[in-house]
């Protein structure tokens, strides 16, 4: 699992707010990381920390303001032609929080799946069998979904259909943004296990975007912690959860509620308190390099520039 398939280098995204306004929102600030073949990476952070924006840039749905996204030795920000885009989407697919927006509401599921073959594998002879197998693999009964329109299915069923689509296309990288948010607790674990299985058996890499630390811990080999557009800590999931160094990561891990344990007021996750602690941490480390190695495969970003 050492082949790097995606490299994100100094990625930035600024949004200009309003049509005439000059106000700029820096949603992603100088983010760098790598994804290896078959690796599951969790991108974790509070709401608004820039996770989805990173996912959308990797999926070429947003143009970076600065930085590079290199997929298999090619900078995808330079991809312009339709053919190159199509080839890219054969390898990299996304699943978003709102699965309803990912389907054409006018087409039934069988037509949507047939279109994948028409578009990408027109000579495939075992199309029907492959579609059925992919649906079975994600725990859906083909006969109960194939003849339905997207609005006749639940959010959870649609998310599974999106995984089945990625399966059929045999993608190298799946960006799963709050993938299981629409699933109930009992089906969540099944979908998570499915992702784990796909990454192990097919070598599919996954960027799993979430604000749920427990899910990230369960699923991922590597963790990236985002705070206000910056990547603040990255490395082995095991190491970060055992030995968090950045004050934001520490507070995030402290904020996981334990069943049967009532929070005391001072233990609450207070944004102002975090901001003060993070600024103090950056001040203390102002003369150090931006990235410090805490231990092998565990780095912390120690200055706020
Ligand atoms: N198209 C846009 N125009 C202006 N600002 C945007 C746009 N998209 C995102 N933002 C802002 O960029 C910041 C990062 O948003 P993003 O959706 O990436 O966060 P997130 O970490 O994925 O949050 P959540 O977990 O709530 O989805 C937020 O402040 C958001 O308001």
Automatic annotation (TrEMBL):
<dbReference type="Pfam" id="PF00005">
    <property type="entry name" value="ABC_tran"/>
</dbReference>
<dbReference type="InterPro" id="IPR013563">
    <property type="entry name" value="Oligopep_ABC_C"/>
</dbReference>
<keyword id="KW-0067">ATP-binding</keyword>
<dbReference type="GO" id="GO:0005524">
    <property type="term" value="F:ATP binding"/>
</dbReference>
<dbReference type="GO" id="GO:0015833">
    <property type="term" value="P:peptide transport"/>
</dbReference>
<protein>
    <submittedName>
        <fullName>Oligopeptide ABC transporter ATP-binding protein</fullName>
    </submittedName>
</protein>
<dbReference type="GO" id="GO:0016887">
    <property type="term" value="F:ATP hydrolysis activity"/>
</dbReference>
<keyword id="KW-0547">Nucleotide-binding</keyword>
<dbReference type="InterPro" id="IPR017871">
    <property type="entry name" value="ABC_transporter-like_CS"/>
</dbReference>
<dbReference type="InterPro" id="IPR003439">
    <property type="entry name" value="ABC_transporter-like_ATP-bd"/>
</dbReference>
<dbReference type="InterPro" id="IPR027417">
    <property type="entry name" value="P-loop_NTPase"/>
</dbReference>
<dbReference type="Pfam" id="PF08352">
    <property type="entry name" value="oligo_HPY"/>
</dbReference>
<dbReference type="InterPro" id="IPR003593">
    <property type="entry name" value="AAA+_ATPase"/>
</dbReference>
<feature type="domain" description="ABC transporter">
    <location>
        <begin position="6"/>
        <end position="253"/>
    </location>
</feature>
<keyword id="KW-0813">Transport</keyword>
